[in-house]
Amino acid sequence: MSFAKTASRWKTIGARLTLWGAAVTLFVCGSLCAVLYAGVFFSLRQGIDAFLEGEVREFMLTVNEHSNDDSTLEQVIRRELGARTRHDLAFRLFDTKGRIFVSSEADDSFAKIWSAPQGWYDQTHRPLFQTINPPGDPYPYRTCSLLVTTPDGRRCTAQASYLLDRMTASLARFRKICVIVLAVAAAIALFVGRFLAYRSLKPIQALTAAANLIGAANLGERVPLAGTDDELDRLAGTLNEMLTRIDQYVEQLRQFTADASHELRTPLAALRGSAELALSRTRSAEELRLVIEDSLERYDRLQRIAEDLLLLARLDAGENILHIERVQLDRAVEDIVDLYRPVAEDRGLELRQENAEAIWINGDGGRVRQLIGNLIDNAVKYTPSPGRVTVSLSRENGVARLVVADTGRGIDPEDLPRVFDRFYRVDRSRSTSRADGTGLGLSICRSIAEAHHGSIELQSTPARGTQATVTLPIG
Fold first, then answer.
1. Average pLDDT, the chain
2. What predicted TM-score, i.e. pTM, was given to this entire model?
3. CA torsion, points 380, 383, 384, 387, in degrees to nearest 10?
4. To which H or E segment does residue 270 belong?
5. What is d(CA 242, CA 244) in angstroms, rounded to the nearest whole number?
6. Bridge-based pairing state of the strands 387-396 and 349-356
7. Are residues 329 and 302 located together in one domain of the fold?
8. Which of 301, 348, 370, 371 fits as disulfide partner to 385, beta carbons 3.0 to 4.6 Å?
9. Are 300 and 330 in the same domain?
């Protein structure tokens, strides 16, 4: 196995979970061992200190019995300590100059390594506990020193020392046990962590395998749910929702591509047919002029389609194409109504404006006028004579509410959800002027409204009319 594969394997979630689990286990076990070690250490030392203090006070009883004869005192304490199986306890008396004048050891070297602390002979009669490491000795000593006054009036220091060989050995064994426990805990943590990580990540592997099988050709497939309603199940549900949205988007894109191809192919085919017909035989200047005029109309239609598609593409990409300014919305509505009023009268329709309330918004004046114009144009175009188109503008809950209502044929309920799709036309109810539009008007209206942080809704009743409602935030 190459180094790269080994390194990449340790970068997996399972490996990281295993290492983190092992690290946490080692930290907990190490902390527990440290606490236990400290507890054992201080407990042993406290027991030794209590033992030494008792021995010092018992030693002072012997001192008081032989206070006038130091030689006899040494013989007595050496005889008593000589009965011990281990030579780990010693007694001594220091004078105020730090010299040993009574000791249970024949060759006592403590006078060279111990001296009274600063101000020792000015202190109270409280025991002083110290740990001393004599040079060359493998083990330290624990001492208990007590400031005393003998019956003959001498001030001196009574001291008992205890060899800490057993305590040191016991602590060393405890440390070895802790190391073994930590090693075993690390091995168990790695094994159990790897097993639990594998079990925990197995559903993710199933999700990955299922997701790898889903492509553009089978977007209808979904990631299976385990039915446990845990985090992974919710992740699978989220992935399925995302796939549903992608499937809908791809389907809309396919439909859009097909519709765009159809919309572009029709005028191109007409242009080609007109050119081939004009070239099929010799034509007069008047006939050629008619062919060119007809071609120009189709060129205009192609240009409108291209411009509308470019506008939608830029809006979909989130490109900021708006020139924000202060726009008097009621004035814009009035201008567009005045512009379309002659067209409506030519069609035998009544176009009127209601609720001329002064409302200002922050937006792109040109795009807002384009939105209003598209809605009024659709209403006029698809309302038969005699009919009525009503435009109203009002202020409601901090937003501007623009309503364009007509008395046309309306839209069937099954067609209403798709009227904002690009190139979608409701042929059965709005086929009277099929060649007049590009099928992008309502899509552009929705994109412009959303670019202004607004919304647009369409309500329609067959044979009774349609109502478009636009809401825009008031600046």
1. 83
2. 0.53
3. -90
4. helix 231-279
5. 5
6. parallel
7. no
8. 348
9. no
